[in-house]
Every structure is written in structure tokens, then in C-alpha cells.
Amino acid sequence: MIRNLSVAILASIALQGCMFSPGQHMDTSQIVRDGTSESGNVELIPITPKLIAMEASTQVDESIPPELLSYSPESYRIGANDLLFITVWDHPELTAPSGPQQQIDANGRLVRPDGKLFYPYVGNIAAAGKTIEELRAYISERLTQFVDSPQVDISVLRFASQKIVVSGAVVRAGQQPLTTTPLSVVEAVGYAGIDPLNADLSGLTLTRDGREYKLDLDALNRQKNSALPNVYLKAGDQLYLPYNDRKRIYVMGEVNQPRALTFKTKTMNLSDVLGTVGGLNQTTSNGNAVYVIRGVENLDKEPAKIFQLEATSPSAMALATRFDVQAQDVVYVGPANITRWNRFISQLVPSASIVGIGAAARNDMSEAGSR
User: Fold this and answer.
1) Which of 90-99, 275-284, 349-358 ranks highest by mean pLDDT?
2) Are strands 285-294 and 330-335 parallel, antiparallel or unpaired?
């Protein structure tokens, strides 16, 4: 009976070895010579210099829309809730009616929600919509009836009427006021502070007048003569810097640190991907089995692409440096044949131990019977 049990276990082990290939393995034997699988839903593409050249020719030019560059901020126009400080030289009773000992804000003139402010001898003034120079000229003209050659100066103590909003993967999200100094996209993002670990630098979105503009901060900043600092904001603009939690590359197989990688640029080249996970495992990997698997939205209509790199030659690593891996790609490094055999042996040993235990039990029973 024990002999029959041992034979059954060995047969089971042999059957498992025939049915399954221990360890993760990508079988490309069903992909025919033209690069398409027999089922038609997979296309195998070698990574070659020709492919790199074709990919480079199809890259989208990262340029700034002309309408953003053509916008030039006009002079600041006063609005509701702005706090103004109006100085009339040699007339402190008009400049600081609360007394010079008070803080400067106490002598400020607040523009009411209806856009008006009150000023002595002038009365209610429709200040909203006027530039600082226009309001200064208006008050000077009205004061000439009471003051000889009035010298009027106006400054804004608090800018509150015109704002832009920055949100997303930034340190200080929220509103930013527009002032007499034009505010650019670069300055607004810089003030908000980029979250260095979680931001997607390639996906900055500027929403203006109901239209969205995509700005790749990483690509534009790498250009020699970038015009990005010349993109200025206007009241009501919204900037959104997305998070990179959905931009992942999944690295699997025979690498030293398999895991999911997040990245903050538009793409990441294959060499950087492999380097980030510690490279190929030198003892278990197959250098000719480096694959980049890229899915498609509709697998019924177009095949998924599998790019293959034969990484055993030095020139292949140069290609890897120029091959861009995209978000949601899977990078898989296959095992060497000896690795697959070793894994089979490692699974065989525990089962063989069971057979050994059965054989030992049989000997013990035989010895007991002879006694």
C-alpha cells in the first residue's frame, strides 16, 4: 500500500511538471513571424533604432498656445473689497483722519461691495473699474474746489478683488490675488509650491473663460528658449496640477526590486525604469526577455503591443535610454531557463520528502513485522 502511495505521489509530481511552468513566464511561441499573435490581439515589436526614430517623429510638439502668449495684462483696475491708501500732500486731515499714530490700515479707504468708496469733499466715488491713475486724477479734479493744487497719491494696501485659484498637488492650494505687478503661471505655481512626490508635472491645466489649456511644465522648462515665464494670468483663471497616483509603471519578473513606479513627468525611459528597480537580477534573468506590455482601450479592434528588448548587448541599453515607457505600461523581465528549472526542483523537493517519509514508514513497519 505504501509502495502504491509513493508511486502515486511521484506520478502527481511528474504530471504537475508537464502541465505547469513554475514561476512567472511569458510564452511568445504563439506569436507568428510577422509579429502578430494567432488570435490577432497581440503584436510583438522588437525595440530597434528604426522604431526609436519612428517614435521620435510622432512625438507631439510641446508648445504654448498663441492666445496664451498674446495676452498682455492691462493696468490694475480697482474692485470691491480693495483697501486703498489715499495721500493728499500737506493735508494730513485728509490723508490720515484717524491720526498718524494709528496703523496704516486704520486710515485705509475700503471699496464697498457695490464698488464705491467715500472720500471727504468728494463724496461717493464709483471706484470699481478704474485704474489707480484714473482714480487719482478724478479725486484731484474734485479737490481743486477746496484745496489749492492738490497733490494726490494712491496705493493699494490690500488686493482683494481680482484673484486666481491654484489647486491640486501643491503645498499651498487656494486663491492668489492679482496685484499691480502681473502674475505669470510660473510665479503662481512657484508661490503655491509643487508637491515633489505626488505632482504630475506634465499635466498642469489652465482653465480660462471655460477653455482648458494643457501645459507640460517639465517639457517646457527643458526647452532652451521657453516662453512659459511669459504666460500671464488674469482674474478668474484656475490652475490645476494633477496628482501622479494614476501614472504608474508596473515592473515585474526577474528584477531586483519588482514594484509599481510612479513618476511625475510625461514619460520615463526604459533604462530609468530598470535602474530604479535595481536592474535585472544577474543570476535569474534572461537578458533577451525584456518586454514592455502596452494595452489598448479596445482590444477587439486593435492589438495590444508588446515591445521586446534584447538587453544582452551594450547597444541595447542605448536603445533603452531612448525608448519611452508610458503610464500603465507593464515592464516584464523573463527568467533564464536554468532559473525555471531550479524553481521546478525547489517545488519537487518538498513532495520528494513526503515520498521519503513514506519509504521510511514502510521500513519501520517491515522491521516490526519481522520481530
Assistant:
1) 275-284
2) antiparallel
Q: The domain 83-158: what is its CATH number? A: 3.30.1950.10
How far is it, in rounded angstroms, from Cα 120 to Cα 105?
A: 18
Domain(s) of CATH 3.30.1950.10: residues in the chain: 83-158
What are the φ and ψ backbone dihedral angles of 161, each rounded to 5 degrees? -90, -30
Q: Domain spanning 25-59+246-339: which CATH class is it, in words? A: alpha beta
- Highest-confidence segment of 21-25, 43-47, 57-61, 314-318: 43-47
Determine the topology of domain 66-73+162-241 in CATH.
Outer membrane lipoprotein wza fold like (3.10.560)
pLDDT for 77 beyond 70: yes
Query: According to the model, what pLDDT value does residue 52 have?
Result: 86
d(CA 39, CA 42): 8
Domain with CATH 3.10.560.10 in the chain: 25-59+246-339, 66-73+162-241
What percentage of residues in the chain have a pLDDT greater than 70?
75
pTM score of the predicted model: 0.71
Give CA–CA dist 241/121, Å, rounded. 49
Check whether 200 has a pLDDT greater than 50.
Answer: yes
Residue spans of beta strands (DSSP E) within 228-303: 238-241, 248-253, 259-262, 268-269, 285-294
DSSP string, 306-348: EEEE-TTSHHHHHHHHHPEE-TT-EEEEEEPHHHHHHHHHHHH
How far apart CA 257 and CA 260 sit, in angstroms, is 10
* Pairwise CA distance, residues 315 & 52, whole Å: 13
Cell of 36: 502578430
Q: In what side-by-side order are the strands of the sheet with 285-294?
A: 42-46, 304-309, 285-294, 330-335, 248-253, 259-262
Supply the DSSP symbol for 61. P
Q: What is the rounded distance in angstroms from the CA atom of residue 65 to the CA atom of residue 220?
A: 12
The grid coordinates of residue 109 equal: 479707504
User: Residue 350's pLDDT band (boundaries 50, 70, 90)?
Assistant: low
Closest by CA position to 82, among listed 226, 190, 180: 180
Given a contact cutoff of 8 angstroms between Cβ atoms, the answer to whether 241 and 189 are in contact is yes
Task: Read off the C-alpha cell for 352.
Answer: 520528494
